[in-house]
Amino acid sequence: MNNALIPGVPVTLAEDVVRLIAPNPGMMTGPGTNSYLLGHGDVMVVDPGPAIESHVDALCNCADGEIRYVLVTHTHSDHSPAARLLAERCGAQLLGRPAPAGRHQDAGFLPDRVLQDGDVISAGGSTLRVFHTPGHASNHLCFLRESDGLLFTGDHVINGSTVVIDPPDGNLVDYLASLARLRQAALQAIAPGHGDLLEDPHAAIDWIIEHRLQREAGIATALQANPGVTSMELTLVVYTDVGQHLHPVAERSLLAHLLKLQADGRAECVEQRWRYRSG
Q1: What pTM does this model have?
Q2: C-alpha–C-alpha distance, residues 180 and 156, integer Å
Q3: How would you class 146 by CB atoms within 10 Å of its CB: exposed for 0-12, middle for 13-18, buried for 19 or more?
Q4: 116 vs 175: CA distance, rounded Å
């Protein structure tokens, strides 16, 4: 593991920006969830992570002043549950979007302010512009510090892997559209929800888009050769490059691709069995 990616060890990434990794390493979280502290005097925290008291303590101890805002990119269980604990301890405001229905959602996250695309939040010398970026989650947000082009992406872009798109809340059409929109922003670096800083943000976004489109092409080809399959049966054909223990997760992203093909008029599903449509 990179020494800079150790849970509980604060790392300064840029002026008035500190990363603190939560102690929740795992298959889906890598070294752990990245929490970020911005500003001095008045402090903003982005993604306080899971409800782990020691991590909340560490965030409080790392803050260069009073925590004023707690921002949440999305309400998956590894990103938002600590928000309420931190806000209650510090008297901070919770900012984000309410949790949609579905599994893996933190239904207890109730923002004091519901953020909209284009909103601006300022504190302690830092100003963040809000981008609503549905795809990985329908309520997903990214935050851009326009002064230096640092983009906080939660799980929309991570370092070291691609993210799972889990229907019905996850939507690949929305995800690719959100990536294309971010691609047009004035970015200098990406501070992801997992993994290290990405210092060539446009190349990172281009790689994700290309990877998704290549995967889509492979799925379309496999569907033509294997008509009438379930999504899990097709996963076993397509995802030969991942371990069997990851197939249940891979099946969710494959289903997202099938639903995009269906939306494009290139696939159809009857009684949970999929066929390719030539047009």
Answers
A1: 0.94
A2: 12
A3: middle
A4: 17
